[in-house]
Amino acid sequence: MERVLVSEDRKRFFFKGADIHTKFGFIKKEDVLKAKLGSKVKTQLGKEFTIISPSFIDKYMRIKRGPQIIPLKDLGLFVSETGLEPNWKIVDAGSGSGALACFLANLVPKGKVYTYDIRDDHLAITQENIKFLGLKNITAKKLDIYQSIPHKNINMITLDLPEPWLAIENCIKALTSGGFIVSYSPCIPQVSDFVEKVKKTKSLMYLKTIELIEREWEFEERRIRPKTQQIGHSGFLSLVRKI
Ligand SMILES: C[S@@+](CC[C@H](N)C(=O)[O-])C[C@H]1O[C@@H](n2cnc3c(N)ncnc32)[C@H](O)[C@@H]1O
């Protein structure tokens, strides 16, 4: 029985059929088993958790992390700025922890995600995460995307690697007309080299580069204000289309 225990301060724990041990105390498996969805259970130290059915995002937040993954706020832009459709074929590189690839695969149930990396250890983490999330429409393989992209008629190519401009020629050959390149880079020199190369390439249309700043607010009685600690800078997203 799949269940997730969430607290008001957004801690979450998965129930795997055994007692749950947390730094807030432990919860006996019998307490979880007899509780209905939506009801609350307490650790012996008094911390309260609500029992709910896990959704994709609950599982996604528990994936194994190797290389730095893209924060949720930026993942939304890959979807909203391209109008991602359920049957799209997507190429992603580098796989890293497989986080972006898995997030996108969940949104294209009639499509496919091909994710590539040059490092075996990163591909192993990606494979583990694909298995953990139970995704069937994604493959992860070893490939240097600067050398080739073995696909045609791809709708979107996502690049999260050190020198994205080196992949541009291969992207053009693999993309369908109107297809998107979405390049994610943490630093402006990388963005600049990528955008300059795109602008010099006739078959590509440069759309824009975005940095999204998220400001979360806290609500504690009359203490209603932006949280003191926020996610600062994460990365820049550059959008390009094949024409
Ligand atoms: C920051 S990580 C990507 C994280 C990933 N977007 C995620 O959500 O988990 C960058 C990855 O690019 C890979 N990489 C670097 N150069 C590459 C290349 N030429 N082809 C494919 N992957 C490459 C690295 O090995 C590394 O795993």
In short:
This protein is α/β, with parallel strands linked by helices. Helices cover 26% and strands 32% of the residues.
Cα-based radius of gyration, to the nearest Å: 21 Å
Please write the CATH class name of the largest domain. Answer: Alpha Beta
Which runs of at least 5 residues are low in confidence (pLDDT < 50)? none
Structural class: alpha/beta
Strand percentage lies at 25-35%
Q: Under CATH, the topology of the largest domain is which?
A: Rossmann fold
Bound molecules: S-adenosylmethionine
Element order: H for helix, E for strand: EEEEHEEHHEHEHEEHEHEEEE
What does the average pLDDT come to?
95
* Portion of residues within helices: 25-40%
Number of domains: 2
Give a quick account of the main beta sheet: strands, pairing sense, barrel closure: 7 strands, mixed
How many DSSP-defined strands?
Answer: 15
The fourth-level CATH homologous superfamily of the largest domain is Vaccinia Virus protein VP39
Molecular shape:
globular
- The CATH architecture term of the largest domain is 3-Layer(aba) Sandwich
Q: Strand order within the widest sheet?
A: 9-8-7-10-11-15-12
Q: Work out the helix count.
A: 7
**C-alpha termini separation:** 49 Å
